[in-house]
Design brief:
The structure is a homodimer. In chain A, about 60% of the residues lie in helices and about 10% in strands. In chain A, helix 1 crosses helix 5 and helix 3 packs across helix 4. The relative contact order of chain A is 0.11. At the A-B interface, helix 1, helix 2, strand 1, helix 3 and helix 5 of A face helix 1, helix 2, strand 1, helix 3 and helix 5 of B. The structure holds a DNA duplex (30 and 30 nucleotides). Chains A, B: This is MarR family transcriptional regulator. Chains A, B: GO terms for molecular function: DNA-binding transcription factor activity. Chains A, B: InterPro entries: HTH_MarR-typ, MarR/SlyA-like, WH-like_DNA-bd_sf, WH_DNA-bd_sf. Chains A, B: It holds the Pfam family MarR.
Amino acid sequence: MDDRADENPPSWRSLPSWLLSQTAGHAQRLVGDGFAAVGARGYHYRLLATLAEHGPASQAALGRRSGIHLSDMVAAINELAERGQVQRAPDPSDRRRNIVSLTAEGRRQLRLLEKELAVRQEELLAPLAPGEREQLIGLLSRLLDHHDRQPGAAEEPWR
Amino acid sequence: MDDRADENPPSWRSLPSWLLSQTAGHAQRLVGDGFAAVGARGYHYRLLATLAEHGPASQAALGRRSGIHLSDMVAAINELAERGQVQRAPDPSDRRRNIVSLTAEGRRQLRLLEKELAVRQEELLAPLAPGEREQLIGLLSRLLDHHDRQPGAAEEPWR
DNA sequence: CACAAACGTTAGTACGACAAACGTTTTGAG
DNA sequence: CTCAAAACGTTTGTCGTACTAACGTTTGTG
């Protein structure tokens, strides 16, 4: 009775928002699997990468730069610290702060993660030709730019 | 010290997977806000739409068709039933089953949700010209097709 | 000095997705 | 016909990303 009735596609399957959510889901699964393969997750990569680019920083500064919510920093840094990939030391010049810095182990892990990342991006874009990949990247970048810049827009139309 | 140091973009900001996740995030926020404006969320819309397309069904069939995990159906249907948008009645011909069906109120709600959805899609794609929107939809559809069809691929390369 | 701000931390919420376990009911194979 | 397998609905809990609220500590400033 319900066996073969599922062939016609639901109406929402062609909505841009649905396509984005679904492809993003696949992307995140791919990348997440890659990270998990070396015992990490997204936050860890973002933190390690941010540290590598900007150098040691307080948790608050790190959160701002990596776009990770302050409330989530504690756990993420704890996890990295447990793995010996970052080091948390009190800032002698400001006792509110912990200065977080990359260890050699962290740098090694970052290299692994970047390698994984590259593989997974390839996998993600596999069905697209080089030109199409650039098209996609361009279109998505424009969408992202637009919505990052105009977070609220049209809250109080004109008044 | 940390004031103006955040201008250079993190390396991962141009990764396809990141672009997808972020744009999908914006999309989901937009659509989610639209749904919330009429007291619903994504699951509710998907269930109502599925019911409208395929007619009454058991929870299990509904879950398969809407792609919602069985474990999440109970709560979602409870919520819809509380709002009087669906009706849950035991199937007389199979006492394991609850037959879920749309009420007039549910149909009304679905129309509201669809209107919201259309508005939000527009908002989402605002920065793109019509031709570009089709390009994006085409590219995303191909990615989605590929990854839906090849869930695992390359698990045991060739033994 | 007093107060506001920044910092780190804890706890809780939301949403989409999934896994494991359980009792009930139906069905199919011996 | 019986008994085991399968389907169904349900509960409980987990994960990852993201966000809010509150709190104590430390700092810097009016």
